[in-house]
Amino acid sequence: MKFNTKTIHGGQKPEEATGAVMPPIFQTSTYAQSSPGVNKGYAYSRSANPTRTALENAFASLENGTQGFAFSSGLSAIDCVLRTLNPGDEVIAGDDIYGGTYRMFTNMFEKYGLKFQYVNMNEVANVVNAISEKTKLIWIETPTNPLMKIADIEEITKAVKKIKEAIVVAVDNTFATPYLQRPLDLGVDIVMHSATKYLGGHSDLVMGALITKNVELAEQLHFIQFAGGAIAGPMDSFLALRGIKTLHLRMQRHCENGKAVAEYLSAHLKVGEVFYPGLESHPNHEIAKKQMGDFGGMVSFRLKDESKQAALTFLENTKIFTLAESLGGVESLVSHPVTMTHASIPEADRLKIGITDSLIRLSVGVEDIDDLLSDLEQALSR
Asked: What's the pTM value of the predicted model, to 2 decimals?
């Protein structure tokens, strides 16, 4: 199947008992057994639920994987990956990652003996030079949150596997979605999504996803999901399945609007710097062109007036862009990384990589582009 067809049919089939085209919401915790240990494939909904199974099959299909896993949040999916490691193992991650990921790495897992290095993944050499005998996981986020850095997934993976095949390479594909890039096709071992965002697409659920085609890893991830219990419920699974069926339609408009907003901001006298991989001025634009089908709907920019007050004035005066956490819904959102999504990162570390008071992040929705540009214009005029 081509991708657009996969969003609707990939890994899916009518429900066997009734022929229902959409998977029913199996709102049950347990299942009847004909004899102890003899069942119809389901025993207890923490281990498996038919609605969640349908969603996990859809995840796997979209990313060209063999096994998908649906979690209660994106962070619980990341937590599952880290639980495959042991004390003393080392992780190499990008220096510009989601604040919640950084918080989990430093505040939760460092005390259990995991060690983390943060490098600028714009250059493959930075990753290679950080590898040691204890390196077990490479955590890539591309495009990054919020500075929209681009890592060359294929080249990093090749370089890492050349040094040691057993090092696991994982990619947070939340910003791009499988509509734009499919990291498993580029050689990585695990793809992660905050399905809360573009996969759900309507800001009405919280969910995480992992996808792999490595049989051994799939067994580990499934055991941790089952034993840890951070599963997606049947209602949220139903909503995510419904959202996925329009992913290709939504992403096309997100990309169109994102590009128009980035170009508008680049020409605006009150804007200092725009971060969007679709702009030729982006330092890794060519890599983005190589591994992405388009450039998405996430745009960050810095005001020329670098004061925090200038940013707050802008943020408090948008009308269509809603000031809120999260991203990837049909509605446009605006956020302030310093005080919102990345507040958990120490100020010195934020400033080192360029997350400043004047940095603003936009999740460009699917509204009429003229309305979005007018809203930005009136807010910037303040």
From this structure: 0.96
**Residues in contact with 231: Cβ distance below 8 Å, sequence separation at least 6, in sequence order:** 45, 46, 49, 52, 70, 71, 72, 225
The one-letter amino acid code at 128 reads V
How far is residue 29's CA from residue 42's CA, in Å, rounded to a whole number? 10
Residues 127-157: tens digit of each pLDDT = 999 999 999 999 999 999 999 999 999 999 9
Q: Which two tokens stand for residue 44?
A: 């207890």
What burial class does residue 215 get, using C-beta atoms within 10 Å of its C-beta: 0-12 exposed, 13-18 middle, 19+ buried?
A: exposed
Determine the distance from the C-alpha atom of residue 326 to the mean position of all C-alpha atoms in its chain, rounded to a whole number. 11
**Edge-to-edge strand order for the sheet containing 333-335?**
271-275, 298-303, 359-363, 333-335, 322-323
- One-letter identity of residue 122: N
Tokens of 370: 């003229």
Token pair, residue 210, equals 């992992």
pLDDT tens string 340-377 = 989 888 889 898 889 999 999 999 999 999 999 999 99
Alpha-carbon gap, residue 108 to 294, rounded angstroms: 35
Position 6 scores a pLDDT of 97
Residues marked active site are found at 46, 98, 172, 197
| 200 vs 211: CA distance, rounded Å | 16
DSSP secondary structure string for all residues of 35-50: BTTB-SS-SBTTT--H
Q: Report d(CA 344, CA 99) in Å as an integer.
A: 6
Specify the DSSP class assigned to residue 23: P
CA distance 243 to 195: 10
Which residues in 26-104 belong to E strands, given as ranges?
67-71, 90-94
Cα–Cα nearest to 88, from 117, 104, 112: 112
Name which of 184, 232, 244, 182 is nearest 212 in CA terms: 184
**106 and 131 in contact (C-beta within 8 Å)?**
no
